Give the backbone structure.
Amino acid sequence: MSEPQQSQFIESESQSTQSDITQLQDDLYQSGYNALALLIASDELLIEQIVKHVQVHFIRKKSNWLKKNLPMVLSTISKLQSCKMMQDYIMTTIDLPIGSESTIHVLLVIADKLALIQLIDRIQKLLIKNEPSWLKKDLIGFLCKIFNDNKYKKIKYYIMDTICIDPEPLLFEFENFPTLEKDIILEFIKRDDLAIEEIDVWKYLVKWATEQNTDSPIITDINMVDSNFQEEFEFTLLKKNIEPFIPYIRFCEMTRDEFYYHVMPYEKILPENLYKNLIAYFMVNLEVQDVILRPRNGLISIDSSIIKGKHARIIIRWIEGINALTEKSFAEFTCIYRATDCKFEYQKFIKVLDSISSTSSSSKVLFIKVKNSDKIIGGYIGSHNFRDIFLPKERRNKDFILCLGSEKDSNFHICCNVRCPYTQRFNINGPWINFYSEGAHLKLYGQKGTCSVLNDRNFIAEEIEIFCINR
């Protein structure tokens, strides 16, 4: 073979070999699993060029496969000494599947086990920024898993801040609330921004503390002891369970009636000096010594003799069409009518409605305190004008009849239409206001009225208030 022929043969064979290698790489890279196996083998054999080449291939061409198999890949490459490029890519750049609850949980377990603090921080930031639906649906469940781990401070305080905005549906009415650890509940009770009435804090804590006694052998076998001993024993356990919370309850924010009916029956579980000071405060308004806790500041402020801030929060939820508020929402309730101030005069009632009908775009809400009942009824009127007209179909479900009571189950609303007369056309024999839908109604005739949500449909109003809601 001549020298030129020899050179041509070598060049041809070299090109053929390079082509074979390229084809081999393409065959290997067809599957992400094959590429990962090649990466592991090359790392063990210390073939740095192939390790680098495979990592570049993953980042440029197999990122989607990486996302789908991220937990497995992360667990694998974290053990490889020469895969820093892919590790950094996963830690800082790759789009993490935040929307997948199961994948995120597995990633956090792996990251925690391998002490990948950078990845843990990144996942926390992405969860807070994107607020995936699965997290909002189970804030308490996720909080329980990470509560005692300092690596998860960012997401822990984000969840706690969110729950404090609307704690009754998100925390206290949580199905597994009775099984929550004391330290988790205590952390919430300490906070000034917990948006809940103090009497409700007390009721929920008594309920939680009572549930902790159910495993006691004496509690479950009444026949073992006489009733007096049983009662004393139950109070002893209740006191032990609720004692850590006592310093953080704002008793002075309760009303006298609330204290009398809901706290005094538990005199035995309160510290003696505190109980005496509270009795002096509620009876003769003496200042309670050693009480430095500020009132909670998360509740919606409302100047009403009928409802409280917690009711205003419920109304906002209904208007928004959501089960719980997870973002702070500005809502200002301005009282524009109070019946006892006007001696239930219908002309003033109608004039108030008429005066804002053409100038105000804010929504309105009517509250009626039913005489000799714990029920509050009323209705919400959207931002349309107060006029005696039939609303267009697209607006009809914006208004609703409402019912508020002392128990959770007695709080509900029914979508409806509303008709409101105005001054020139007002008929003294007609209803002052009429909320109606198929099967439900609320009609007000001065201090009297009828409402389908009451057991006895006829009622007498003890007080009537109308508020503008600016949001």
About this structure: The chain has three domains: 3-148, 168-284, 309-470. Residues 3-29 form the longest helix (27 residues).
